Structures are given as C-alpha cells and as structure tokens.
Amino acid sequence: MKKILILLCFIFLLSGCYDYVEIDDLVIISGMLLDYKDNNYVVTSQVIENESKTKIKIYTTECLQIDECIYELSKISNKDIFLSHLKVLILTESVINNGKDYYDYFLRDTKSKMNFYIYYVDDKYKDEILNIYKEDSGSALYIKDLMEFNNKIFSSSTPVSFLDLIYKKLEYGIEPIYPNLKVNKNNDEKILFLENLITFNNKKEKIVLNDIDGITYNMLSNKLIKTIITIPCDENNFSLIINDVKTDYNWKKSILKINTNLKGKMSSYTCKYDLGKSDNIEKLNSIVNQYIKKNINDLITKQIENNIDFLGFGLYIYKHDKNYFDFKNNNWNDNLKNLKIDIKVNTTISSIGEMRK
Amino acid sequence: MNQEKINSFNLSTIIVSLCCSTFYGIFSSYIINTAKNASTISIVIGFIISLAISKIIISFFKKEKDLTYTKKLKYIFPKLSIPINIISILCSIFGYILITYRLTTFLSNQYLIETPRYIISILILSLTCYTASKGFNTAIRVSVITFFISIAIFFFDFFSLVGQINLENYLPLITVSYKNIIISSLIFALYFAIPLIYIHIIPFDQIEDQNKFKKYYYFMILVSFIIIFASVFTSIGVSGSKVTELFDYPIYSTLKRIKLFSALDSLENISYAAWFLFIINTANMMLIYIFNGIKEAFNLEKKKSIIIDSIIIVVIFLISNFIFSNNNYNESYEYIYIPTIFALITLSILIISLIKHKFKSKNKRTISSS
User: Fold this and answer.
1) What is the C-alpha to C-alpha distance for residues A347 and A288, in angstroms, rounded to an integer?
2) Which chain B residue lies closest to A11 (C-alpha atoms)?
3) Side-chain half-sphere of A138: how many Cα atoms within 13 Å?
4) How far is A119 from chain B, CA to nearest CA, in Å?
5) Cβ of A16 and B239 within 8 Å?
6) Which pLDDT score is estimated for A163?
7) Cβ–Cβ < 8 Å for A182, A121
8) Which residue of A has its CA nearest to B117?
9) pLDDT mean over A110-126
10) Quick one: which of A52, A309, A319, B102 is 20 to 30 A from A302 by CA?
11) B167 has a chain A CB within 8 A of its CB
12) 3-state SS class at A276
C-alpha cells in the first residue's frame, strides 16, 4: 500500500500537472510582424485561438522590449502564450535598419523553437500583410507555402530561417538577405505575393534584387532547386529549365575563382540553329555560359556598387585565408571593390525536349 | 552487499553513462566557447589524455580484487583511511550535487517552467535514492537499458542532422590560442575519465567473465568518445561555432533542427532523454558509492548508516536548492573549474594509492620470500 501511495505521488508529480495548461487557455502564435517606431517595438501577432471553434485573430501591441509585447498580448487575450508554433517572422525596414537586437528575445526564450522563417515587408503593406486569409489557416501558414512553392518551381527567392539570419549576422564577410513580401491585387481581391530578395547596406539603403538576380543568387549560394530562364539567341530566344546547379569556389593567389556547373532541359526554342546538329548544341551551351556569366557579373557589380557582400565572398575568404584581411577590425564590405574574381560557367543542355530539331 | 555476479558487458554499459553524463548539460557549452572551431581537436586530445587516466582506473580496479574502493583505500592507508575516504566521499557528494543540479535546472528551464525547482529536485533525489538503495545490480540493469536506448537515439540524431553539416563551418580550424585548446582538452579528460572511478563500487571479483572486462571497458570508452565527438562535430558543422556558442545547451539547440517528414518536430526533447538517463545512471552510481562508502569507512551498522545516508540526502537537497538557487549561464560556466579541482583530488588519491599499493605488495613479497 505504501509503495502504491508513493507511485501515485510520482504519477502526479511526473506528469507535469503543475505546468498544465488547457489548449483552450492558450493563444498560439503562428506569425509575427515586427515594426520599430519611436524607440518602441510594435508587434503584430497572428494567433490561433481554440474555443468552441478555431479562430485566427490579429493582435497588435507596442512596448520597449519584444517580451513585454508578448506579455501584453497575453493580457489582452487573457490566455497563455504559446510561441513554439511560430512559423513566420516578418520584419519591417525600421527594425532591420535601426540595428536593434530584435533577435535576442527569440534566441533567449526557452520556448522559442528558432525554426521559423524571416521575411521583409515594405511599410505600405505592413498593416494588411497578416490580415489576408484570416478565414482560412491564416496568412502566416500561407506565406510558408508560398515560399515552398517558389523554391520548388522558380527559385527566385530563398527561404531564410531564423538561425541562418543569426549565422549571417555573427559571421565575418557575409550580410543577411531577406525574402520580400508584398500585397497584390487580383480581380479586386487582395493576395499575398512573394517578391524577390532584398538587402540593406551600411548606409541603410535598400538593395532590391530582380528575378534574374534572385535566381543568380541562388545559383551562387547553391540553393537553387529548379528554375526556368529565357536566353536570347540571335534575335530570338529559348527557355531552359535548370534543375541541377553546383557552384564551387576556390581562393588562390588572392583571386576568387567561381566555377558554376549547370544542367538544363530545353522547354521552348525559337532560334535559327538546327538542334539536330551537335555543334549547334555546343553553340547553345556557350550562349548559356555567356548569359549566366553576365548575370553573375551583374550581381557582383551590384554588390560592389552598393558596398555589401550578401553573396558571402568575404566569409569564404575568411574561412580559407583568415590573414588575407583584418576581418575583426575592418569593414570587409569596403574591400569588396579590390577583390579579383574569375568566373567560369559550364552548361550542359541535357535534353532538347520531345522534338528532334 | 548483494553478491550476485555481474556480466562484463552489462557492467561496461555504465561506462557510457559515466563518461557522457557531464558532457551534454555541463561541459559542451564550455568547450565550444573556449576552443570554438577547434573543439573537435580539443576532444581528440582530451580523449588521448583520458585514456591514460582510464588505464590508471582499470589498473586500480584490478588490485585487491575482492575489495570495493573504500575498502581498498582502507587496506592501502591503514592509518589515513578515514580522512582519505571522507575526502573521496565529499568529492562524490559535490559531483552528485553538480550533475543533478544541472538536470534540475534544465528540466525547470525547458519543460516545467512553473513548477518549483525543489519539486523537480525531490523527484530526482527520490529516484536515485531508490535505485541506490536497491544496490548496484539494479543500477547496472538500468544502465544496460540506457545503453541501447542512447545508442538508438544517437544514430537517429546523427543521421537526421548529417545532411545539414557544412564542412566550411569548421574553417578556420584554429581561431583561439593553443592555451585554450590545451586547457579545454585537459578539463575534458578529467570530466570524461574521472567518473569511471565509480565502477570501483563493485569488487572486481564479482565480475563473471573477468578476462573480457578490459576489452569491453576500452570499447565503451571509445563508444562514449564517438558519441561526444559526433555531437560536437555535428553541432559546429550544422550551425557554425559562432551560433552554437551562444547557447547554454548547444547540443539541445542543434537538435531543435531535426524535423521528420517536414512535419514532425520537437524531437530534441526525446533525443535529450539520453542525457537525462546518463545523469540518472551516474547519480545512482555516485549515491551507491556514497552510501556504501560511509558504511564501510566507519564500519557502521545498518540502522546508523541509514540515518547518516538520510542526513546526507537532506544536505544535498539543501545545498542544491539554496546555495545554488540562482540559475544562470555564468554561474554554471564558473562551476566548470570547481569540479576540476575535485577531479584532480580524486585522481591524486588514485595515483598515490596505486603507487603505495605497488610498494605494499613489493614489501609483502620480500617478507614472504625472506
């Protein structure tokens, strides 16, 4: 009997009754938008509330620290906060540029899973971004699907996980880049749209990457899964579905060598060359090489002109030759213009589709 | 004492728990903060040093095969046995407090936030006291189960994360001074090997297949090394040393990245159960040593020893809940050095005992031959 009583005590103590919270008493945060205004954080949270029916709600709180805002949210909703379900953290320009350590809370809080994704939103869309799709599973989950789809089909944007962002903030010679969200209109209906990538230089200027830049960024950072590019040939053009890209870097004699190998399948063709001849396929390979090389050059020029190393060349050099530059005491971005880069692209068109010519 | 014989393999499984218990929650953040990218080098150097310590421990284990550690000390130091045994027991009490305190802290931080820490502390104390009261046969049975669970968890974790490893994250390999690497290696060796002393609670004679023990002993040390090395290697490889060193529980933070079929997450909580089991096993062994040690050192009767054991449990509870009432990273970071002193004391006692035993046996042989 004594033993049974002791075991019963253990059942109560071990099952964590002390910390027990009913799901109805929880407010589950699935998405969060962070803004910074007059030295205060403005936190807009998309939450899932479970009462008689699951509801998506939006709460906005304003305070000095993010955790304070979260507690404020708990106060408003009269429920405990559940942060582990957070899927999306959207940042505004003021949060990124005011250099506030907004990420500190998410690193420090024990309930933060740190497996959510980071996005950027322009000020003009910040009020409506989490308010779309309130009836369904909520904008936060829609954004997650949006990125997964883009990544599988276009690769013009790239998912940035919270820990990737922290990694880029802490390491030398690499700057963070953010996927850009906006609200578009489709037949009078507002829809969420995933724009390309965006970053900010030391002067807090916004650098926007277009579609081609986004694809090239993904090629250079080995994150490209699948994309389609249209390449001019003569006065016409042809499209290539690229699904196999590998970029290697090499640092030798103070020259950064970039070697990109890609494989693609032709999806449309209006050029003059006869595809039945292997010489012409070689010619097309070299056209693609030149096109990709030009895109890489343009992206690097964008980096240099804006004085920001978002491609992480500095990080690569630091890892392979840490004495090349005093990364600790000097700003690597200022040295970007002195960097010698040698680019090589090697394309293989593996299929011309179902047609023989 | 329970006279049931123990199988070599079963006994050797406790080695994995003893070697790994201090790593996940105590030593991992220290080594990554001190040696940074060179943590893996530190671990390898530390492992080589720890092999020498392990050799000393097994050599002493094989001396006076029918005696436990306390009785061996009594035999070797007939006049000084009481202070030496007291020092050894105090070192073990401190070790017990440290490891259970870290487990309590972790559980209280991560899972049972609202629950008062003393409740968690009581639970751990009760669990380890109960197992310790059942003797080492029970503790060894628990360790056999733990061994297979932890190996399964290790493989699952490793293969879930290996695809995320970026070899560039280990570069540049050395970003800290050689002094940092050597100090962390030395401390690693002590943390890794000194807990092995608790196998001495079982007299060597009680092992069924004694000739096989040495082989299993080194094999399990190697397994423990592989587990620790792979944990640090994967953590740095996945997140980079700069991100990993931010956390008080770096391995736990890395395990948060495990996701199965794009939907199943929070698996780090299951994975970290291996550490809880390691701690519980080590705490069991420590308590068995403390309880038996007091009884044997002072030749106490059962009733008296139960009273003293109870007093010790109360003292342990009070120390871990009142003196270590704060709970922060700096605190635990500083504690890295204090156990090192206790480990060095334990190692010194072991070496002196081994030397003294050698002389004693030499004299014995000389007397018997003359």
Assistant:
1) 7
2) B123
3) 22
4) 19
5) no
6) 92
7) yes
8) A18
9) 87
10) A319
11) no
12) coil
* Mean pLDDT value of segment A173-200: 87
Cβ separation A113–B265 shorter than 8 A: yes
Indicate the pTM of the whole model.
Answer: 0.90
Cβ distance A226 to A243 under 8 Å?
yes
By C-alpha distance, the chain B residue nearest A15 is: B112
Report the amino acid identity of residue A138. Answer: G
| CA atoms of A249 and B167, how far apart (whole Å) | 14
Amino acid of residue A172: Y
Per-residue CA distances from B300 to A170, A290, B168 (Å): 59, 88, 60
Residue A7 forms contact with B (CB below 8 Å): no
**Which among A170, A316, A318, A323 is the top mutation candidate for probing chain B, defined by the most B β-carbons within 10 Å of its own β-carbon?**
A170
Residues of chain B contacting residue A110, judged by C-beta atoms under 8 Å apart: 109-110, 113
Neighbouring residues of A165: CB distance < 8 A, sequence distance ≥ 6: A103, A118, A176
Does residue A137 carry a pLDDT above 70?
no
Give how far Cα B63 sits from Cα of A6, A244, A248, B5, Å. 41, 64, 59, 18
Distance CA(A176)–CA(A165), nearest Å, equals 6
pLDDT recorded at residue B153: 94
Query: B interface mutation test: which of A167, A249, A326, A327 has the most B CBs within 10 A?
Result: A167
Give the whole-angstrom CA distance, residue B190 versus residue B343.
Answer: 6
Calpha distance A211→B280 (Å, rounded)? 56
What pLDDT is stored for residue B65 in this prediction? 86
The per-residue b/e assignment along B68-104, b for 16 or more CB within 10 angstroms, e otherwise, is bbbbbbbbbbeeebeebbebbbebbbbbbbbbbbbbb
Instruction: Determine whether B3 is exposed, middle or buried from the number of CB atoms within 10 Å of its CB (0-12, 13-18, 19+).
Output: exposed
Tokens matching residue B106? 């972790």
How far is residue A280's CA from residue B64's CA, in Å, rounded to a whole number?
A: 86
Q: Do A160 and A88 form a contact (C-beta atoms < 8 A)?
A: no
Rounded to an integer, the average pLDDT of B334-344 is 82
- Tell me, what's the pLDDT at A136? 63
Question: Is B256 close to A115, i.e. CB distance below 8 A?
Answer: yes
